[in-house]
UniProtKB/TrEMBL annotation:
<dbReference type="InterPro" id="IPR000235">
    <property type="entry name" value="Ribosomal_uS7"/>
</dbReference>
<keyword id="KW-0694">RNA-binding</keyword>
<dbReference type="GO" id="GO:0006412">
    <property type="term" value="P:translation"/>
</dbReference>
<dbReference type="InterPro" id="IPR023798">
    <property type="entry name" value="Ribosomal_uS7_dom"/>
</dbReference>
<dbReference type="Pfam" id="PF00177">
    <property type="entry name" value="Ribosomal_S7"/>
</dbReference>
<dbReference type="InterPro" id="IPR005717">
    <property type="entry name" value="Ribosomal_uS7_bac/org-type"/>
</dbReference>
<keyword id="KW-0150">Chloroplast</keyword>
<dbReference type="GO" id="GO:0009507">
    <property type="term" value="C:chloroplast"/>
</dbReference>
<dbReference type="InterPro" id="IPR036823">
    <property type="entry name" value="Ribosomal_uS7_dom_sf"/>
</dbReference>
<keyword id="KW-0699">rRNA-binding</keyword>
<keyword id="KW-0687">Ribonucleoprotein</keyword>
<dbReference type="GO" id="GO:0003735">
    <property type="term" value="F:structural constituent of ribosome"/>
</dbReference>
<protein>
    <recommendedName>
        <fullName>Small ribosomal subunit protein uS7c</fullName>
    </recommendedName>
</protein>
<comment type="similarity">
    <text>Belongs to the universal ribosomal protein uS7 family.</text>
</comment>
<feature type="domain" description="Small ribosomal subunit protein uS7">
    <location>
        <begin position="3"/>
        <end position="149"/>
    </location>
</feature>
<comment type="function">
    <text>One of the primary rRNA binding proteins, it binds directly to 16S rRNA where it nucleates assembly of the head domain of the 30S subunit.</text>
</comment>
<dbReference type="GO" id="GO:0015935">
    <property type="term" value="C:small ribosomal subunit"/>
</dbReference>
């Protein structure tokens, strides 16, 4: 295979109910042990709960939450001359969305309570209101990048 060809990205298909790629990506991040129908039930029930609590379109609330969580910069370890520097780099949109979804689900799992549906819906609502643990994670990453701004010239 030639070195000049670039691998084609496989983007998630739209989900069946909301016709949204973002919901489909969320379902794919929730899957455990290959049980996609369970992940779909969790996601769709959480979306219905968001609709009831906020009286707004659940897709719009989710999009706003993901937009609020998506990081602009992150740090990456770069080894130069025997020492490792944390170099701040810009995050591409697809990776930013993936990081936001990962942080959202991890923050929902760490919330108190026993029902993942309620925890996920509350975390999405909190993130859309710019509060919650997922937002805290984004601010932590931005703070780390800001403190290592001096090493930005090591970017590759």
């Amino acid at each position: 295979m030639s070195r000049k060809t670039i691998a084609k990205k496989n983007f998630a298909d739209k989900d069946a109910i909301h016709k949204s790629r973002l919901v489909s990506m969320l379902i794919n991040r929730i899957i455990k042990n290959g049980k996609k129908s369970l992940a779909q039930r969790i996601t769709y029930t959480a979306m219905d709960l968001i609709q009831d609590k906020t009286h707004a379109n659940a897709i719009k609330v989710l999009e706003k939450a993901i937009k609020n969580i998506t990081p602009l910069v992150e740090v990456k370890g770069r080894r130069i001359g025997g020492s490792t520097y944390q170099v701040p780099i810009e995050v591409k949109t697809y990776r930013g969305t993936n990081l936001a979804l990962r942080w959202l689900i991890n923050a929902a799992k760490k919330r108190t309570g026993k029902n993942i549906i309620v925890k996920l819906s509350n975390e999405i609502i909190d993130a859309s209101n710019y509060t919650g643990n997922a937002i805290r994670k984004k601010e932590e990453v931005h703070k780390m990048a800001e403190s290592n701004r001096a090493f930005a010239h090591y970017r590759y």
